[in-house]
Amino acid sequence: MMKLDIALTAIDTANAADPNQEDGKPAALLYGQRMSEELERLYPEATDPLKIAARGQHIERWITPRQSYPEGKAGYHAWRRDQARHHADRVGEIMAGAGYSPEEIEAAAKMLRKEGLKRDADVQALENVICFVFLKWYFAPFAAKHEDSKVLDIVQKTARKMSEEGRARVLAEFDLPKQLAEAFRD
């Protein structure tokens, strides 16, 4: 078995323990598979560290629930930061066990911690994939539960994280209402 297969299988095994279910599967497992599918579609020449970072983007996310942090923006940001560190550390352990070099492990960790967004091509590629997965699979359920102003705010934040090419591709692939589509034109 190739080391990429070993790493992806280990991530899937970890995520199969997610008690949260979506479409009859552990939610983190399904999310990781969706990330890999979108990465392959959007960036077919992705490096192993990028492929592993995409699959491990939410590895064991359920271990530290959002509710375990204070309400509000500061609590949310602390939770997200701690999640990113956990994902990077956990994926790093898996990559080391599969035989990846320290440089490859650090490259994936940097992507998972989102260090270099808008400056590092692989970090940006991962963020673009995250945004596509959100729009394709999670946006409609999110929008159904929130007021239009909150939906617009999230769409604007999503668009700001994406590259120019990623935003153009969103406009080409998704039929968004005019007000939401405007966020991707800036």
Give structural notes:
- There is one protein chain.
- The protein is mainly α and 186 residues long.
- The protein contains nine helices and two strands, in the order αββαααααααα.
- Strands 1-2 form a two-stranded antiparallel sheet.
- Helix 2 (27-42) runs antiparallel to helix 3 (48-55) and helix 6 packs antiparallel against helix 7 (148-161).
- The longest helix is centred in the middle third of the chain and has 27 residues, at 72-98.
- The chain is globular, with a radius of gyration of 16 Å.
- The protein starts with a helix and ends with a helix.
- This is DUF4202 domain-containing protein.
- Keywords: Plasmid.
- Pfam families: DUF4202 (PF13875).
Q: Can you tag this structure with a few keywords?
A:
DUF4202 domain-containing protein; plasmid; 186 residues; DUF4202
Explain briefly what this protein structure is.
It contains 9 helices and 2 strands; from the N terminus they run H-E-E-H-H-H-H-H-H-H-H. With 186 residues, it is mainly α.
